[in-house]
Amino acid sequence: MSNDYQVSKKKTSKKNKVTSKLIYVLKVLVAVIMFTPIIWILSGSFKTLTEFTTSAKIIPKNLILDNYEYVFSTGNFFKYFRNTVLLMLGTAVGTLLSSSLVSYPLARMEFPGKKLFFSIIIGTMLVPEISLIIPKYIMFGKLGWLDSLLPMIIPAFFAFPYNVFLFRQFLRSIPKELDEAAIIDGCSHIGLFFRVIAPLSKPIYITIGILSSVYWWNELTQPVFYLNGDNWRTLTIALMTTFTYIRGGAFVVSWPTIMAASSLMIIPPMLLYLFGSKYLVEGIKTSGIKG
Amino acid sequence: MKARKKKPMNRRLKNNLTAYGFMTPWFIGFIAFTLFPIIFMFAVSLTNRKLTGISQYIGFTNYINIFKNPNFWNSFRVTIFYTIIVMIVTSIWALLMAMLLNHKNRLNGIFQFCYFLPSVIPSVALSYAFRSIFGRDAGLLNAFLSSITGKNVLINWLYDPAFVYQTVFFITLFTYSTGQMMLIYRSGLNEVSKQLYEACDIDGANSWQKFFHITLPQISPVLLFNTVTGSVSALNGSFALLYPLTGEEGNPNKMTQVLSLLIYNESFSNQRVGYGSALSVILFLIACVFGIIIFALSKKLVYYEN
Amino acid sequence: MKLRKLFGLLLALTMVLSLLVGCGSDDNKEPDDTKVTDGTGETKDNKETKGEDNEGETGTEINLTVWNEPPKDDSLNMYLAAEKATGIKINVSVIPETEYSSKLNQMVATGDDSADILVVWENDIANFAEVKGIEPLDDYLASSSINSNDFIDAVAQLTEGLGATYGLPWCAATEVLYYNQDMFDEAGLEYPNNDWAYEDFLVAAEKLTKLNSDGTTQVYGFDLPNLQTWWAGIGIKGDQIYDPATGRLVIGDGAVSFIQDCVDMAKKGIMPVPSSDTSDNFGAGKAAMSWQGSWMVGSYGDTLDFNWDMATIPTAARKYNTLHTGFYTINSKSKNKEAAWKVIEFLMGEEGQRINSQASGNPSALVSIAEKGEWKVEAAKTVENWDAMIDSLEAGVFGYTCIPAGVTGNAVSLFNTAVSGQITPEDAVKQAMEYAAETIGYTLD
Questions:
Q1: Which of A41, A50, A183 would you mutate first to test chain C, the one with the most C CBs within 10 A?
Q2: Class of domain A69-283 (CATH, top level)
């Protein structure tokens, strides 16, 4: 890595050793801070409610599986899981397809209005979703989309600015000579995109695929507004509702059940991360980020 | 001659049409899911629309009531304060983590895993975990502090006005947007040219000097990008984090009731959708102002190669 | 290549068109509002045609929306019993209590037809009736075995003035005091009875509190009132709380005095202060007494590690607690109204009410059924003072539940802030009143 420059100077190597030890300690400390909540969630999921509310020990007195049993037997865990996966896949497919298409001319073609459109895209990146959620809520209500996943999946097919931006960054980094060669060979832009550019852009497809999946797996705000009943409830909503209180007892928070459901919810994004971690840094190109 | 002249015209037209064709999804998306809602939001904000759908035009009454309402001004202040601090805190923390990770040593993969994992787990799960970690009677932190000090520490982290902000800002270090910023910093740091550092080594510069004279200017566009997205995520993500954490009332005493919580509270719990829309218009304007300020500042502060 | 292009164009075009069609209906503002009213016109047709359909059909399914998970034990599941009795499949959709009211409002507002039976709360039923989101049930009632004169008085009062019967109360839940008998024994105190004076309660709470050597609390005498029982405390002090004539929140000296008592108790460590990890201290054996809904009898059952019983909430200026119920209503958008009614008829009948009482511990709102005492939960073996339920039922009124959730939520948040010592009880009450006036839309005098 570019930062491993200490080798070049022997004089300061001793000082650098101390520095790098300090850095190592700092690294461990940050890791402990970042990982504690996850340990806490896991440990809490094996406690009884009484133990959870009376003791803060990391290791539970005796490991009980009742909380997991409760999560699987209450409500419809598998239905919520299915809904969340559908949401995740629907939005990922939508945004990968639309965002990459939209980013292509912005990155590799010249046409009137390019600058303007790109500025608008950057501009809309700054509009927080939450500020438009009430009008959208009424709008989707009139379309009859409420209480389904449509208000979240359909817009994904019409390009999210943030993803368009990341795609554009990556597509710009692919040498332009490729286009010229292909065009001379009689390939149209569409052919060029599907045959040359898209296959070369695998890292960014994977990166955005992962980021988008994780985002929608975790998304709470939009489901809170758009979903009502049990049919399309996602896991995040179920965590805040179905798994929050003890059976039949409104207002008595069942902490260990929340922790058990949370532990289960951590697994898929964790697997996604393990699968895609090497692409995550590779896919994001920051050169010429000013646009 | 004629054919020659015509051909480039055609080609250009075809080229432009292809480009617009590619962009069609965005055109539609922009009009249907951004532009139209903005106009519609403004229209609804001029009515006394209820959740049940009954509505009547009432002019600017909602705005007048909002500006008279101390709860709004509280939320307004909280939103701005929250957004600015979260933007700063998470940017710095993400940069710190990215720099630590770019300082490679053994087990780097595990470190990256530990740093990044909290940001990919659901924020609801995090909020609940932190509610109990920062609990008063059986919270992890108080237990830890008690075992160090030997006294019975009973700090009410999320309910004590003296601690609530520090606690909430600490929790934002674990959010999705912090993780994403870290990723972007990492690739930004990777793209800083090696020669620059080597040149600096020859000059005998120390690590601090390198950081301030090379790293920071080189990554300043990335820094700007992260600040911008950070402020949007702070405005946007505040709901998902705070709704399960401190409730729609923004406990304690509305100290954490950001505008997004107030919008939800008014539109759904109080069933005043028209009023909620007026609040949304204000939130939208705040976001615009934030964007303008950041870009204005960036012209002065960001270093561009070309 | 060309084909692909054409296909892409077609796809884009259809999307544009479908959107335009969608937006088209947005442009005129009426549809959404009239949709609800139109509903009545449509529904009449539905009733006739659908009614015939259902006679022949056996595999009918209906959806019921409620806030409680059905009990795990099949013999206590009234929906299963209803399925058996009517042959109609019932899908229960659960929306938890914290979001229930707002989600139901959204469903009615958008003309959602996914639920046939809505169990509607006290504060919503009038609004839903007004926008014709729910069906009047008088025609159905006329030819049914349910005797609507048998309901407890409070129910009759609440539904008066709607012009028709829109809903039938699924039960009548109250609020009671739960106490840990072991702790009372240890402290040498007499068990509370149904006429316990509020002053005696305060004294007992102090005596039951166990402090550590450093002044922190080991066992609280009294658990923090929850979102519901705050209002019981204010009610026993004599405040009206809800004025049915004007729909206003009416609190004052009583509220100030009760909040002040809570502030004092919190200061002395008798009562916990609000915190982010709120939990049931009574159930965990960390509080000797707590005020909660009568349904907790069913939840506690035999799961607690100590002996416990209940009593009427202590009496100060008067006896007071809030009645809780929900009304079985039929969604006017429902396509299965006849089937929905059959299910309601069963659930309101003797067997349905018996199972509900046994499962939840809540008495029936039908006097003749409540008198049978089926609500004495068998699993709650240490409970002897079952009279507390009847006594509370008599003292119970529909109070804060008739006020919008945002208003009462805001008020309780203010009360809690006062307990934490950040504002005075007087300010909390004043701000709560101002907020209510602003939100509901009236001016304070």
A1: A50
A2: mainly alpha
